[in-house]
Automatic annotation (TrEMBL):
E.C. designation(s): 3.5.-.-
Keyword field contains Protein biosynthesis: no
Name under which the protein is recorded: Amidohydrolase
Originating organism: Amycolatopsis silviterrae
InterPro entries: Amidohydro_3, Metal-dep_hydrolase_composite, Metal_Hydrolase, YtcJ-like
Amino acid sequence: MTGDLLLRGGVVRTFDPVVGTASAVLVSDGRVAAVGDDQTVSAAAAPDARVIELAGRTVLPGLNDAHLHLAFYAAAGPEFSVDLSAASTLDEVARALADAPPGEWIVGRGWRETTIVEFADGREAPTRAWLDGVTGSQPTVLHHASSHEVWANSAALKCAGITAATPDPEAGEIVRDAVGEPTGVLVESAQELVASLVPQPSRELRLDSIVRTMERLNALGMTSVTDPIVPPGLWQDYRDLHAAGRLRMRITALLHWNWPSPTTSASSLAQLLDETDFSVGDDLLRIGGIKLFADGVPTHCTAWMHSPYPSGDHGSLVTFGPDDDARVRELHELILVAHVRRVRVQVHVTGDRAADAVVDAIEAAQAADPWPDARHALIHGTFLSAAVLARLARSGIGVITSSLMRTYSGPSMVRALGESRWADAFPARALLDHGVVVADSSDAPVTVPDWRRGVATFTGTPGPNEFSTVTTPLTREEALRLWTTGPAWLEHAEDVKGTLGVGTLADLAVFAHDPVTAESAELLSVRSELTVLGGRVVTE
């Protein structure tokens, strides 16, 4: 229970279609008790209410990242790994690795072929030989920014027992040189061969890093996230943080049992679902369903596309099966297994051909066993065929876009697909025009979680490079709804989250500049001056 908190004298953007924009909001016992004009709302407050004079500042519902790997992002912190996202040359990679945190292994994250000049111009390629010269006999694994590839040295390959004779795992590739020797690059499920061997930090450090990460997100006005890959151990970590009163955000967990492998079998999934209690949780921590993978990513030419990549390949699904037809059947079975058990599914899908297959599978499951308002969703929906847009709306399938990838992954996408195809990525405008519910996200640690940059990207605000430009922008309010009302709908929580109306959870943030009307520079620099979670001030 929390005391009354009265905020008045500002602009309260409720995003509630009935309430509209107000000037004051009253919080009591963790919920919105009143919202409207200053006089009316002030009269409803208890005599001992804490009063915040907004002085013209703007209140928004708490921001909600619909796809943020909270624990993975916390684990990418400097106390655990080397940040390679700013490295522009191999010399800079070497210098960064020289300052790696002490430990049995060296772990790095965030490198891209397009930002390291020797890779971008074709003079070099990621090899274990180069990495051996920098790291010697200390096992080393460097995670690509996409999280769909790692670059390992010889010591790490030796620990994993990877040799020229090691077969590629299902839905993965051990990249090899001209004579068949492993280069040190492992793609998709092959990452697990090495990544699973890295010693984990102590439980205390792990939990502390999650709390610190939540604090940083609170400072941006964020109060909710969906963590889309939550294995059993992480679910227990979140439950323990909740029991200790340390959660500073609402977490919706999507369960996933075998990461970093994207592949599971329908029979295995059925057993796991039958063994899981999906009813546990509350408004602060709950299970929202499961995550499945349909394909890979365009940057690695592993997304399943209708049109070929420059190599002539089309990519493929990552479900089990010896050919496309078998993999499509397995995809249908995976979705049906969850659907008939009334478990919501969010599916990683980036290629247009894969998206068509996922929509086919969801529609088939609905036809076999109708579940009104299931709210299954496509994660990313990077490339969508024109014909699928109306089907998404008709079937009630949501889409979780990744606007920030236009900034962070643009050069890599253009390199793999060309500028004209990249221009059609993440079609938020077309989705909304067709009546599809859309939520936006960061996919951190693939990008830096910053809703401000996402809003700027989808509204056509000038970005840091030409790759972030969109040709059909959203309005500011439309873009902000992708970080408020859209995620709430996907969580089946639109009655209590995403808006500020009487009875909703008191999650809100106060900004000096109104994100709906702020100039570009103001929008990109604004931070929350007061963040409230369930009536409790978490940032001030």
